[in-house]
Amino acid sequence: MAASNGRGVASPAAVASNASETGMQPAKKPRRCFSAHEDLCLLREVAAAKPFGDDIKSGTEEQYSEKEEILQDLWDFCESVKYEPRIAPRGATCAARRRRLGAEPPVNTDELPGVTLSDDGTGDGALALVLNRGKRTSSRNSAPHQNQHSSSGLPQLSYSGANLQVCSTPSQARVKFPYMCTEKNLHSKKGIRGLQSVGLQLLAKREKNELDLRSRELEIEKMKVRHEERRLALDERRLALDEEKHRFEVERWRGERESLLDEIKKMLDEQTTKLAQHHNT
């Protein structure tokens, strides 16, 4: 029985001793990183939300073409990793994972001479995955890379005559062997690299668009300055014309006044001559 405190609750030391006695391992801490599946889900959500796809909003032709190109890149990325939405519990067991991995296309062992599998069918999925991966990567893997995989605690493959045997120890029984050799994992790594390249391309396009926007803003400012200078020149010309018109009006008014004074003077002279003649008679 586990030792308990006064309240009837087992102490941590007692729980640890019971776990060591029963052979149970303590629960592992949850991982704090995103998987490729979660990244794809996020990309799907962003693509489905369309934050900049409102028809009411306006945009330039370059922005629409950039949006279409980004959506095409996201679609190509999903196609490259062969994404299929799946709903699985977070705490899936190794048996469920092996069943999922067993759905991979089987390896044609007839083309490989001297390869025999166990009659009970245990390890068929892992062996098929290893052979499938070996056929795909035999041309690009080197000896140090193989040594690194052999020293990582995974079950070893040994060729003995015409039979292919899997050598493993009891301590390696719970090693998640097929997980590192799945085609889906390889595609996920390629997809992550593709996503990084797409991110770099998007950053480069964004920087280029910002530079284009700045250059257009400078051109617009220059056009505004030219239009302002032209407006000032037109205002100056209009003021000169108004001044000339005013001078012309003043001269015309002065000429009319002088002509009127001459007529009045002439009439006075005529009246004075008539009065002088009348007095003489």
Description of the structure:
The chain has a domain at 105-139 and 148-181. α3 packs antiparallel against α7. By secondary structure, the chain is mainly alpha-helical. The protein has seven helices and two strands. A hairpin with a 2-residue loop joins β1 and β2 (163-167). Helix content is 62%, strand content 4%. The protein has a two-stranded antiparallel sheet.
Helix and strand arrangement:
Elements: H1 12-22, H2 36-49, H3 61-80, H4 94-101, H5 124-137, H6 143-150, E1 156-160, E2 163-167, H7 183-280
Antiparallel strand pairs: 1-2
Helix pairs in contact: 3-7
Q: What is the helix tally?
A: 7
Helix content: 55-70%
Overall form:
rod-shaped
Which sequence of strands runs across the widest sheet? 1-2
Mean pLDDT: 67
Query: What is the distance, rounded to the nearest whole angstrom, between the alpha carbons of the first and last residues?
Result: 169 Å
Overall SS class? mainly alpha
Give the uncertain stretches in residue-range form: 1-10, 104-189
How much of the sequence lies in strands comes to: under 5%
Rg estimate, integer Å: 47 Å
- H/E element order: HHHHHHEEH
Give the number of DSSP strands. 2
| Biggest sheet descriptor | 2 strands, antiparallel
Biased composition (Low complexity): 9-20
Coiled coil: 208-281
Biased composition (Polar residues): 139-157
Region (Disordered): 1-31, 135-157
